[in-house]
Structures are given as C-alpha cells and as structure tokens.
Amino acid sequence: MLRVRDLACARGGLPVLTGVSFEVPAGSALVLRGPNGVGKTTLLRTLAGLQPVVAGSIEVRPEQTAYASHADGVKAQLSVAENLDFWARIYGMSDSEAALTTFDLVALRDRMAGTLSAGQQRRLGLARLAVIRRDVLMLDEPTISLDQRSVILFNTFLHDVHLARGGIAVIATHIDIGLNAPVLDLDPYRAAADAPGQRDAVFV
Amino acid sequence: MIAVFIRDLRLALRAGGGFGLGLVFYLIVIVLVPFGVGPEAAVLTRIAPGILWVAALLAALLSLDRIFALDHEDGALTLLATAPLPLESVALAKAAAHWLTTGLPLTLVAPFLGFLLHLDGAAYPALILGLLLGTPSLSLIGTFGAALTIGIRRGGLLLSLLVLPLYVPTLIFGAEAVRRGAAGLNTTVPLMLLAAITAGALAILPFASAYALRVNLR
Questions:
Q1: Which residues pair with A58 in a beta bridge?
Q2: Of all helices (H) and strands (E), which one includes residue B37?
Q3: How many interchain CB pairs under 8 A, A with B?
Q4: Of A132, A123, A182, A190, residue with least CA distance to A162
Q5: Which of A107, A136, A184, B113 could cross-link with A65 by S-S, CB 3.0 to 4.6 Å?
Q6: CB neighbours (10 Å) of residue B216?
Q7: CB pair distance less than 8 Å for B78 and A67
C-alpha cells in the first residue's frame, strides 16, 4: 500500500506541487499525467526519497521502493548480462536469467551494452526492475523509445509479474501505454510561486 | 559494496576506462624533467623527491573527475542512491577502485622513474613506503572533491581548485620522507604523518562525500 497525503514537493528551490493526495493499493498501478514541467518527475523522485518532502506525508516502506529514471544507468563497456548481474548483486538477488527472458534479451546477453540500440538499452534498463524485485516501482516514462512489441513485453511484465505479485507501480507517461489503471492528472496541483519549498524559505 | 568496487575496476580496465591515463602522464612528466632542467646529476638528485611527488599528485588528479561524473551522466548514480546500499560505502568503494587503478600503479613505477632522476639509492624505501601510505589519501580526498562537483558540467577546474590545497600536507610529508631518506636521516616521523592523513581521510571523507552526493542529487 502506498498512501500519499497532502504532499508538497519542490525542485531546485522552486515549489512545484502542493496538496497531492492519492492511494495505491497492493497489486495496482497509478498513471501520472500532466503537461511538461508540471512535476511528474519531481513527484516520483520525492516518492523514491531522492528529494526531501516539503509538506505532507508519504506512507511506504522505503526499503520496498525502486526508481527508474529517463536515464537507465546502463554501462556501455559492460555486457548486457554484466549490467544486470551488477544490479542483482547490489540488491542481493542472484537470478538475472528470468529478467533476460522476460524482456527478450537472451540473444543479446553477451553484447556490450554500448552497441545496443536505444530501444534495446531501454529494455535492459527495464529488465533491471525485474531483477531487483522491489514491490513499489516509480517509473518515469518507461516506454520511451520502445517499439510496439517491447511496450507489450513491458506491459506483460508489469501485469503478469509485478502487479500479480502484489506490487505497486506509479508511472509517469505522456502516451497511452495500454495499461488498465487509474489516471491522476497533476495539473490542478500546481504550486503557486510563493508556496513553501522555496530555497530561501528558512531565511525569511 | 564489493559489487561497486568490482564494477569500477572492470570499467576502468576496459577500453576508454582511463586506466593508463595517470600512469602514462606520470611517466611522461618524469621523463621530460631532465630535458627541462638539464642532465646534471647533482641537480636532478636534489629535485627528484619533490618532482616524483608533485607528478604523482597531478597524475592522481587527472582521473578524479571520472569517479562520479560518468555515473551521474548515465543516471547510474541516482539508481545507486535509491538502492539498498549506503552512499558512504559507494564513495568508499569508488575511492578504493580509484586507488587501485591510479595510486598503486604510480607507487609501483615510481622506483624506476626515480632511477631516471638519479634519486639517491638510500631514498627508495622511503619513496615506495611514502607513496604506498600517501596515495590512498589522494584518492579519498579526490573522491570527496568529485562528489562536491558532480552537478557541474566540465567541473574539472573547480575540482582541481578544491582538491589541490587539500593535497598539500600529503605532498609536504611525502617529499620530506624521500628527502630524509636520501640524506640518510630517520624517516619515521613523516611516514607516520602520511599514514595519519590517510587514516583521517579514511575515517571522515566517505561520510562527507556521501553527504555531498545527497545534496547534489536533489
């Protein structure tokens, strides 16, 4: 269960969102919508614990969350399998084979990640999520640069593996990725320029 | 933590990893010195301790900006910050990998380069021991500087400005140990002070680096 109450968040000393409240029960997903710059990434980073909470509360066990940004953190000089094994070891997992199958990377396992196409690299980045097996995923534009077939692979993983296990996903996206999930439009929660969270707040 | 260490070593050793960068730089600088100051053995013997240490310092500095910048650019650092691994141990693992790919090779080639500079024979133990004790502090201080400057594009200049003054104590005691060794004096005190700097850096700087990383990742 992920519960957010009256959350306000800021980025770079500018208040971005205020009064965001939502609940995501176990086994379901939430899609975040809103125009560019409304604060989807900021909200996800705050949920993942990368940014301090300005006001309100987030109820989730921090050791359950995982974050996936626009950038995949894929190392060009390591092979596909080495990249995944690294994250498996960091999260104390042993098996990265299943993830290779889920994201159709078996044939690419010994290729250097730097020689992969943008879409293949993205698949590798998403396969990390299958390896680390965290319950609460914060996904920032997960399907960017994926072709239709890979989007289906990703949806299958999300539905049949992650959510079926009782996991939670919060997904920021612009395009309809064919996921049957409630949508939260962030536009009404835009913070006023003088809202708390400004860099100089402590000095006033 | 060991996973980060092994990954960094592997990345450093593969193509484009910059493993030989500091080492080759060190080699070239030392080889160039006799051309600059002339082949007079007496002059070279006198300046060798200082040159060997200053060049080691600059060689270590050369690869510092790679410690965090590459991981920051491709997003891996953000993912590591949300991983169940304290950033303190990430900083420590990265400093250790930097030392193993920079400080240790410099220590190993320094005796041969000392030969090129007519370094006094009695100074070699102090040179090797001094570099072995002193170079870890260069990597630890450098990791802290790199953590402070990750948000900045082309932060190399700022990094040098921040880190070089902090390298001064290591340089002074390191060169002093070699000079004393060459003069046949006791080298215990400067070597102990070098070890003290490294021990202090090891105790404090991983925590400072992790704090700087957290602030910079916001």
A1: A4
A2: helix B19-37
A3: 70
A4: A132
A5: A136
A6: 16
A7: yes
